[in-house]
Phosphate ABC transporter ATP-binding protein PstB (Methylopila musalis), 274 residues
Amino acid sequence: MNANVTAPAQSQSQSAPSADLGGAAKISARNVNVYYGDKHALKDVSIDMAERSVTAFIGPSGCGKSTFLRCINRMNDTISICRVTGKITIDDYDIYDSALDVVQLRARVGMVFQKPNPFPKSIYENVAYGPRIHGLARSKAEMDEIVEDSLRKASLWNEVKDRLNDGGTGLSGGQQQRLCIARAIAVSPEVILMDEPCSALDPIATAKIEELIDELRQNFTIVIVTHSMQQAARVSQRTAFFHLGVIVETGPTEQIFTSPNDRRTQDYITGRFG
Ligand SMILES: Nc1ncnc2c1ncn2[C@@H]1O[C@H](COP(=O)(O)OP(=O)(O)OP(=O)(O)O)[C@@H](O)[C@H]1O
């Protein structure tokens, strides 16, 4: 609970990332460093992520992708040995500002994990849980509307509308993951972070989630960590390649996969390491 979080003034040690995002920047990180005790896991990371688009983080295991993703909704605060420096803004608002309410931040910045993790509650209650905590519905009818709307946006409504009172954990893995996406959507976030959301799913369930991600980007800013370069190529508009705790290269996904600027990116995408 006691991550030591500081947000120094922006240093000039790293050049600003490319402004050519193809849209406004929703999330900006400048000179972010993350330490787990003495381990320097993330080094001077600076990147802009465009609004209503999908940014993919790729790179070999242990290079810091999940660590950086967790910085964006301050999930690293829950790791006592973790210390974050640098600056991350969402809509120009410093998310490490001491006045910020982290619970509200996590409503604005939802997260979907590797393994589907529905609550041991009904399908309806899984989705209603967040809106209830945040007081988003004034009546049962309003809550019903939020639940239906969230399940529709997560492309799950038609499959579950007749069994909303059944347990969420009784759904298939792919359905559970879409339920978790509905749960994230239900509190009207602006950003959805996804940490390898398809790694526990079969190819058909994966294809459904990828289709869904493409629809969701009309309304949400999405950041996804994936081990699958094919998936990054299919779902994202921009890709950042991480290696040994640094971002080696960021750019339009097509360019990263067809003509990367850095030799290390080239080696990774051609399977020479990782
Ligand atoms: N809770 C933690 N405590 C200590 N070290 C950690 C913790 N979480 C991550 N690390 C270390 O930080 C580094 C980056 O890990 P991280 O999980 O962010 O990498 P990753 O690129 O997401 O890896 P993967 O693709 O395997 O999930 C690794 O060396 C890892 O061992």
User: Anything to note?
Assistant: The pocket of adenosine-5'-triphosphate is lined by residues 36, 39, 41, 59, 61-67, 79 (CB under 6 Å). The longest strand covers residues 25-36. Confidence is low (pLDDT under 50) at residues 1-16.
